[in-house]
Amino acid sequence: MCYPWYLARLIIAWPGDTNKLAREHPMSRQLDLQPYLEDLESRLDPEQEQRHFDAWKQFLDGELDHGTFSPPARKPAPAAVEWPLLSIDQALDDMDRMLLRELKGVSDVLAGGSSATLTVRANYGVVIIASQYGCQIARMAPELNTLPTVWPLGSREAVRRAVDAGVPDLQGGEGAKVFEVGRRFMALKSQYPKIGKWVDVYHPDLQGPIDNIELVWGSDMFLGFYEEPQLMKDFLAVMTEHYIAFLRAWFEVVPQPSEYAAHWGMRFNGQPMLRNDSLMNLSPEMYVEFIRDHDQRVIREFGGMGAVHYCGRGDHFIEALSEVEGLTAVNLSQPHLNDMDRIFANTVDKGIKLLALDPVAAERAGRDLKGQVHV
User: Fold this and answer.
1) What is the rounded (10 degree) CA torsion for 98, 124, 244, 166?
2) Residue 3 is assigned to a structural domain of this protein
C-alpha cells in the first residue's frame, strides 16, 4: 500500500475527461484473445528464457560471491500484431481485458529486449482482502490509470464486529474475480506451451496482515496500538488466518512451478511476497510485539521461505525483520529514504537478498555487496 488510503478523497473526483483513455483506444465488448496469444507464443525464445531462468537460479542459489546481479537482456522481438492500450479501469471491469492488459506487459518486455522475468497476475490492487470485510472500493478517476483503494470501515465498533465474525468468505468482495482470472490464465497456459512454460502467474496483491488492517481499520489503527492493544492482537490473528487461507486457495488455482517464485518481473526463494508498508510508521518494538510472529507464520505455512516488500523508510525495523526465519529477500522501493549501511548489514551480510535495488544505490554502497543484490 504505497499511497495512503485517504488519497482517494483527493483524486476520486479528479476533474477532467474521465473517458479519454477509453475513447482513444476503443474496443468492442467481444474480445478475441487468440491473435495476441499466437503472437506472444511465436515470439518466445525458449533458449533465451532458459538462459534467463538459469541466471536467476545461480543468483538465488548463492553461487555469486561478489558484486551485484542483473539477469541477461533478451534480443528484442517486436510484436507482429498491434496490441491495444488498455486502462486499468477497463481491465477491472472485464476479465478478458485484464488478461490482455497483463499479457501486453509480457509483449512489451519481449519487444524491448528487457531482462525482466515474464509475469502476469490478477491485478486488482490492494483492495482484495479488505473488500472481503465489506470495505467500499474507491475507484480513482479513469484518466489517472491507477489501481483502486478502499474506504475503511469507519469505527472501532465496526472493526470489532469484523474481528468477531472471523475469516470472511474467500469468494466475497473481489475474491471471486481474482480466482476466476487465475483460472483463465491457467487455461491459456495449457493451450500455448511456450506461454505455459515461460510466463509466470504470480500471486495477487494480498498485501500483508498489518497493511490489510490499516486498509480495513484506517489511520486510527495507529492509535489502536496504544488504546486497543488486545483488539489489534485479535485482528492480526484473524487477518493472518485470512491471508493464509486466501493464498492457499490461490495456489490451488495457480500452482507454483518451482521454489523460485516470480513477482514483479523478478524472482525470489519461496512463495509469499508480504507487503509491510505500514511498518514505516511503527517502532521496531511494536513490530516485534504485535506483528513479527504473524509474518513468521505466513512464511512457515508456505514452505518456510518468503520475501518482504516495503515502501518508504524501513531501516529502523530492518534488524527485527531480518530475524524472521526463512526470510530470503527484501524489496525496498526508496533506498534514498533509508540508511543503506544499516540495510546492507541486515540483509547482504546475513545472506538475505535485496531485490530490484536502484543501481545508483548499489553504486554508492562503497562496499562489496557479495553477490546478494539484484539491480
Assistant:
1) -130
2) no
DSSP lists the bridge partners of residue 274 as 308
352-366 pLDDT, tens per residue?
999 999 999 999 999
Helix 209-217 vs helix 229-253: crossing angle, to nearest 10: 120
The set of cell numbers assigned to 322 is 531480518
What is the count of structural domains for the chain?
A: 1
Q: Which CATH number goes with the domain that contains 87?
A: 3.20.20.210
CB of 263 within 8 A of CB of 251?
no
Take residue 343 and report the three cell numbers written for it: 540495510
- Where does 199-253 show beta strands of DSSP type E? 200-201
192-211 pLDDT, tens digit per residue, is 999 999 999 999 999 999 99
Inside any domain, residue 363: yes
Which residues touch 236 (CB under 8 Å, ≥6 apart)? 209, 210, 213, 290, 291, 294
The answer to the question of residue 1 being in a domain is no
Q: What is the pTM of this model?
A: 0.92
* Degrees to nearest 5, angle at CA 166 with 162 and 171: 95
Angle between helices 95-112 and 34-43 (to 10 degrees): 30
**Residue listed under C-alpha cell 492457499:** 248
Range of the domain at 102: 36-74+83-374
Residue 24 forms part of a structural domain: no
